[in-house]
Specification:
By secondary structure, the protein is of the alpha+beta class. It has helices at residues 7-10, 43-55, 66-86, 93-111, 114-121, 125-150, 157-166, 192-210, 216-223, 247-253, 297-316, 321-328, 334-337, 357-363, 406-429, 439-444, 446-449; strands at residues 32-36, 39-42, 174-175, 179-186, 236-239, 265-266, 271-280, 283-291, 375-378, 384-394, 398-399, 435-437. It contains 17 helices and 12 strands.
Length: 459
Amino acid sequence: MLYRKNILTAVFLLFVGVIAAQGPKKAVADKIIAVVGDRIILYSDIKNSIADIVRQGGANTLPPDAECLITEQAIVSKVLMLQAEKDSLPVTDEEVEAELDQRVRYYITQLGTKDLLEEYAGKSVYQIKDDARESVRERKLAEAMQQKIVGNVKITPTEVKTYFDKIPKDSLPFFESELEICQILLYPKASRDLEQYIVTEMNNYKKQLENKVTSFEQLAKRVSEGEAEEIRGRSFQINRNEKNWDPVFLSSAFRLKPGEISAPIKSKFGYHLILMVERNGDDAIVRHILRIPPVTDAEIAQSKARLDTVRSKILAGTLSFNEAATKYSDDEAAKFSGPCVLNREGAPYVTIDQLDKEMVASVGKMKVGDISLPTAFTGDQNKKGVRVIYLKSRSEPHRMNMRDDYSKISQMALEEKKALVLDKWLKTKIPTYYIMVDNESSASCPRVQKFASTDTKGF
């Protein structure tokens, strides 16, 4: 097994933080540490990339030679980008702008509002995007070139076994027990009388706000539901084109004028009062108050009965679990990614610590292949629901082996093969580019000196 840094998976690390790294207290001097063709790499780029990794919680994963590693990756990325330009690989202005918009929205979500982002960055959103535009274009070109080089690389079972056999037996990783868990969810609806009661209360809240009896923030902290108390009533940024917002909430918000408060709006989460704070085209800053109509034991019992009928059909073999989830589940994700719980990487294998407490209690009593009786649970935004759980598989804690972990080993072998293909390509292409590395970097990072053109002496 080759124990080395995987350039393939980390090559674009330098550009992950082109927006976030634009801090107001940027004290790193813009010293040129490398030149690739007609493109330069600044020392501040490297330091800001490391700072951004730390900000995103990656401090513990940084290797001791992180600065050298990221410099190496930056040089490789420039070579890939320049070759992509030579090969006329397509990257459109629309793709670049879409990614810039997505990144800005992400950081606004993290900080709360556009004003806070601009205060943090020390510049306007327009300037942030303008500063990052060329870096994003270069990164997308480099990605396109990388895909052209390794996109068709495949792995055979023989190569997977050869890869596994090269791993020293005392270095095989230990895996905790992993579960494949699928579920069908129902979210009972509150009675019409209770919904009407909530609507009446929301209309009373609106009158209080319009008569200035209380402020929106104070009222939200007192009555709003489904959020932590410390963030109730806070303003937040929304964008008309974002897909993760409830469409009814979005369309209702964008019908408001600045300072206007909506009538009670029903979304999939409950009833909202929306205050439009500020609007700029497809972006807006809003506040909201959310009330969730309470679900009684009677509605829970009705949903349990309905799910029990579905479970009986599955057990009788007249309906598969996946078909039942597609047809009956209120879990929107099940319609696209299937009914199984996914881990952080998007794979259907989870450890016990990734499950909610109620599911842990249910799964602890189940055998592989069991389908639970309908049970009540509390989901996101304190929403009450009912679900049946299917325990599809459960692995025992074990050392990595070919029988239990073939798919993981296959992916690791494929990534290494791609890295070797990329390394081979780089060895043939790098000599065709003018590359200079400054003397100080060469002395402290021998790994980057290998890239320097033979007729250059550094600077």
